[in-house]
Write a structure and sequence with these properties.
heterodimer, A: alpha/beta, Rossmann fold, Arc Repressor Mutant, subunit A, 3 domains, 21 helices, about 50% helix, B: alpha/beta
Chain lengths: ~550, ~475
């Protein structure tokens, strides 16, 4: 649908462009509306002059004016002798970029001159395609209205096209004089559009050029029809999870060489046999990197496999599809490393029969390699942090976590001790997760556990108290409570060290300090900035279970 | 259809597109009264200035899209023979009097070929003017006084007149109106002294604000003639339809006829086209759409906007306008649904939306990423352990790593589907910042249903995690 809409729009812009068009493109469709319109208008025979302006790059009105004029006149700014960029209009009038009306004047002059070089100006019109207009709302809100009325202001045929990911009602200033735009929405992503876009990305081969890409054989122009088939299969396979053209581009890039590999193996084997005479089966394990010599071979050997072989390729592809899709889609493995992993694995030739054991081994290797990579990434996260902190710092951090996620009124139940030195086991009654209940309007909302709402702030005194309790019970790795009379002195001695440790933790941003930073009294409020996983791993190092000390443990 | 009629259809389509851009002035019996009288009074006012040397001022008021600018263009056309100097200023572009003055000087230079400003140093050429950023406003009366000394009558058009009233001390308006009034007095006293060499000036303000007159300061107001010309959009539905008919039945001009040899064919085409338009406009559904439109906005510009898409859709395969097309275009142009694109979103984004749906079910309109993530991962866990297979596929939802989910969450924030509650605070870490969902519950249900993902749909329908 969107291609049809854009085609129609391009036609309209060539015939009788309305002064103001607004294109709502929330999903950043591919190809982008501006590039599509620019190309189709540029290649058309009409007198329209399409000009693209990226509002992201225009922070000030001066930059915007220069961007427009430079585009209209195809002027490339250069540095002059004074080290300043020259502008096209400087030849005529200086300081034209100071205000809007001088800019309009400059635009008129630029238009006249450019049209003069093009020829007749009867049907000529200037089409300004503004991309990312939502940024203008923040940077140059005062210019939105004049830009929409450029046609009236300059009295030359200008069509302003705004392209934005935000809807028009978000951008339009609430002024009655604003021109209502002709609205176009290009949100839909139909299968046909997406596939034709992906197809257009198939690299155009330049004869005789040798690229360094190891898989360049896979992008041989002969294979283009097969590529279309592949895209259809890929699209269908991905439909439940993604139809985003960018995602699909990524997947297609990673998966296409694997899909087409059996065909390539055939090619290589044929060339090999031509070259090496009786060495027939070398194609199986030959390295991919030595493609270069084959590129110089006559191309007759490289033919598209017969149609009857396509289902075979698809079947082979689909067997490994599910295992390779998730890691690629979730980006736990990059397309490049996936390609490398695949290239190093044995494959087979299309002309050979598939055998069950061969398939199984390939599948196993395919599915195992991405997972390993994924685990490796996840494991290294807390390791560095744990190694850099001392034991007492970890304990302080666990104390901060408890202070942040337990309500203050539960501290006595959690850490209170009877004379015998046994912990009063008062702990959470609830399990994690937001309790459902058919509570809708009028009834009281279900309570959300603190762990989902985020850390609460706590005072320094409370942290020190909890830290003290933790030190007494778990400080030396004892599981049983140690002597309950540690003496006030010991705690007092610890205080300076504790505060130093705390400062360091705050500097590491593992604990956040809330409120005014220049206050030195005891009313310091803090917030824990580490998640449950980190705190729990530290607690485990001290040989105690963090969940036992939480009022509302994570399930 | 024959190739000839293909060509004619194409020509007709182009002609209609052109007339949509420049809708015709209503000239039928019903429209004649209001528009014509305002046109007449404006023309007579301009004639007074251009022919009899009067100084005139007036305000053209009317809602947007009612044809104010068009009226002025038409009136100017009729006094074109007197070759007046036309100065156009807009309150949108000229934010203060200095800018307005500079623009005025620039237009004067362009139209008369000589300079009237009083620069002190560097001559009086165009370059000096354009760089004259520092013209003091004290030159304003001098500049405006030159307007009446020109050898041609002057017409000053002030678009967005109400914005000029916000300028400091309304100096520009004061000077302009004062000059106009003074010119009036002069021409009265000198009217008998033979053929006067003094040329008139007309100041025309254009505004959508009905209370514009009250914005003027007393001294400015007393110099204004008080003439108001009101322009109104079509007041009755019949008139409105008539406008649509005039636009759609626009006759092919000579330029297009040149391409067609047989006159008979053209006549035949015109009658058949007019017939098809008449059928289209008498269709019940068409009338309903037009009535909806008329009751929302009466202006012609909106009508043209809505008609544009059906006309663009004309092709040899569908050579007539249809009511369905019109309805579609109406929906797209007048308040399009803000979240129609949700169904095109990816699986992680839709999962997050469903999670907000379930969290709202528990009574929480506000949510943070952590809550959504918890909801989603529990759902994945729950469905993953189900030993149920449907059509050989497991009902388990696909796992998504937290990083991808964070990306999806951020993209929804960027799309403004999730909007933050309250100001940003440095003390709240990212996953705990509270948001609310701008999309309605109905939008989410529709999006998930249309996305065609059965697992998501069943999650939405069966309810969340307990």
């Amino acid at each position: 649908m969107s291609t049809k809409q854009l085609n129609q729009l391009a036609e309209l812009l060539q015939l009788h462009p309305p002064p103001f068009i607004f294109i709502h493109d929330p999903l950043h469709s591919r190809p982008t509306p501006s590039s599509f319109l620019h190309n189709s208008l540029h290649n058309s025979t009409s007198q329209s002059m399409p000009v693209r302006i990226d509002c992201n790059a225009c922070l000030t009105s001066k930059m915007l004016f220069h961007a427009i004029i430079n585009e209209v006149t195809s002027w490339v700014p250069e540095l002059n002798t004074k080290g300043r960029a020259t502008s096209w209009f400087n030849r005529h009038v200086s300081k034209w970029d100071r205000s809007l009306d001088s800019f309009v004047e400059a635009l008129k002059a630029a238009f006249d001159e450019t049209i003069g070089t093009l020829g007749t100006r009867t049907n000529a019109n200037l089409i300004l395609l503004f991309e990312n207009v939502e940024r203008l709302k923040e940077t140059l809100p005062a210019l939105i209205v004049p830009l929409t009325r450029l046609c009236e202001l300059a009295q030359i045929p200008i069509s302003t096209v705004f392209i934005s990911s935000a809807p028009w009602c978000e951008i339009s200033p609430p002024i009655g004089t604003l021109t209502e735009p002709y609205l176009v929405s290009v949100a839909s992503r139909s299968k046909q559009d997406t596939i034709s876009y992906l197809n257009s990305l198939f690299p155009v081969a330049v004869a005789g050029s040798s690229t360094s890409r190891p898989n360049s054989d896979a992008y041989n122009p002969i294979l283009k029809p097969l590529y279309s088939t592949f895209l259809g299969v890929l699209y269908d396979g991905c439909t439940p999870y993604t139809t985003d053209p960018d995602d699909l581009t990524h997947l297609a890039y990673a998966m296409w060489p694997g899909f087409v590999r059996p065909v390539l193996e055939d090619w290589w084997a044929a060339e090999q046999s031509l070259e090496g005479g009786d060495e027939k089966e070398r194609g199986e394990d030959r390295p991919v990197s030595s493609n270069e010599e084959h590129r110089r071979k006559p191309q007759e050997l490289r033919t598209l496999p017969p149609d009857s072989a396509t289902p075979l390729l698809i079947r082979h592809f689909l067997v490994s599809f599910n295992s390779s899709f998730s890691p690629l889609h979730n980006r736990t493995i990059s397309a490049k490393s996936f390609l490398n992993a695949q290239a190093s694995q044995p494959s087979f030739r299309l002309s050979q029969r598939f055998t069950a054991p061969a398939m199984a081994s390939i599948n196993a290797s395919l599915s195992s390699s991405p997972k390993k990579t994924g685990l490796g990434l996840a494991g290294s996260k807390h390791g560095d942090l744990g190694a850099s902190l001392s034991k007492h710092k970890k304990l302080l951090l666990v104390g901060a976590y408890i202070s942040s996620f337990n309500p203050a009124r539960t501290d006595l139940r959690m850490f209170g001790r009877v004379a015998e030195g046994v912990m009063k086991k008062g702990r959470a009654r609830r399990t994690g997760g937001i309790s459902t209940g058919k509570s809708l309007f009028g009834r009281k909302a279900a309570k959300v556990p603190q762990v989902l709402l985020g850390p609460n702030s706590f005072t320094l005194e409370r942290l020190l108290a909890i830290y003290g309790a933790l030190v007494v019970e778990h400080g030396d790795g004892h599981t049983a409570p140690i002597n309950l009379q540690p003496g006030q002195v010991e705690i007092e001695v610890h205080r300076t060290t504790v505060l130093t440790m705390l400062t360091e933790l705050i500097q590491l941003r593992l604990i956040n300090r809330i409120g005014q930073h220049d206050r030195l009294d005891n009313n310091v409020t803090l917030k824990c900035n580490v998640g449950f996983e980190v705190a729990e791993s530290f607690a485990r190092e001290m040989k105690f279970n963090l969940s036992d000390l939480l009022w509302d443990p994570v399930s | 259809m024959s190739p000839g009629s293909h060509r004619l259809l194409d020509a007709q389509r182009k002609a209609i597109l052109q007339s949509l851009l420049k809708p015709p002035v209503r000239a039928n019996a019903a429209g004649e009264v209001s528009k014509h009288s305002s046109l007449q009074s404006l023309v007579s006012l301009l004639e007074g200035s251009t022919e009899r040397g009067e100084g005139n001022s007036c305000l053209v008021l009317g809602p947007r899209g009612s044809g104010k600018s068009r009226l002025i263009e038409d009136a100017l056309e009729s006094v074109q023979s007197r070759n007046p100097v036309v100065i156009r200023l807009s309150g949108e572009a000229q934010h203060d009097d200095r800018l307005a003055m500079r623009e005025m000087a620039r237009q004067l230079v362009r139209q008369t070929g000589s300079s009237y400003i009083l620069p002190t140093d560097d001559g009086a050429d165009a370059e000096g003017l354009a760089s004259a950023d520092t013209i003091p406003t004290t030159h304003l009366p001098a500049l405006i006084a030159t307007l009446t000394t020109l050898s041609r009558p002057t017409v000053v058009i002030l678009e967005s007149f109400d914005l000029f009233a916000t300028h400091a001390r309304q100096a520009l308006l004061y000077c302009l109106l004062d000059t106009a009034q003074a010119c009036h007095a002069h021409s009265d006293s000198q009217a008998n002294e033979g053929p006067s060499k003094r040329y008139g000036i007309a100041v025309i303000g254009v505004s959508t604000r009905m209370d514009t007159l009250n914005l003027l300061e007393k001294r400015v107001k007393s110099r204004f003639s008080g003439r108001l010309i009101r322009v109104s959009p079509p007041s009755s539905f019949e008139e409105y339809v008539d406008v649509a008919k005039t636009i759609l039945q626009v006759p092919l001009t000579s330029e297009e006829i040149l391409e067609v040899e047989e006159e008979e064919e053209l006549e035949e085409w015109t009658s058949s086209w007019n017939q098809s338009i008449a059928t289209f406009l008498s269709n019940k559904e068409t009338i309903r759409v037009l009535k909806d439109l008329f009751s929302l906005r009466q202006d012609i510009r909106t009508l043209c906007q809505v008609l544009l898409e059906p006309v663009m859709n004309l092709s040899p395969n569908s050579p007539a306008l249809t009511a369905a097309n019109l309805r579609q275009s109406f929906d797209a142009q007048i308040g399009p649904p803000p979240f129609a694109y949700l169904r095109e979103l990816s699986y992680p984004c839709l999962s997050l939306l469903i999670a907000t749906f379930h969290i709202a079910n528990t009574g929480h309109e506000a949510f943070n990423f952590e809550m959504l993530w918890n909801n989603f991962s529990r759902q994945v866990e729950r469905t993953g352990t189900m030993p149920v297979m449907i059509n050989g596929a497991s009902v388990g939802m696909i796992k998504v790593p937290r990083e991808v989910m964070t990306g999806a969450f951020e993209s929804l924030v960027a799309l403004k589907v999730f909007q933050p509650i309250g100001p940003a605070s440095s003390t709240i870490t990212k996953p705990f910042v509270k948001y609310r969902c701008a999309a309605q519950r109905g939008d989410i249900v529709e999006a998930v249903e249309k996305s065609g993902n059965l697992k998501l749909n069943s999650w939405l329908k069966r309810g969340g995690v307990e």
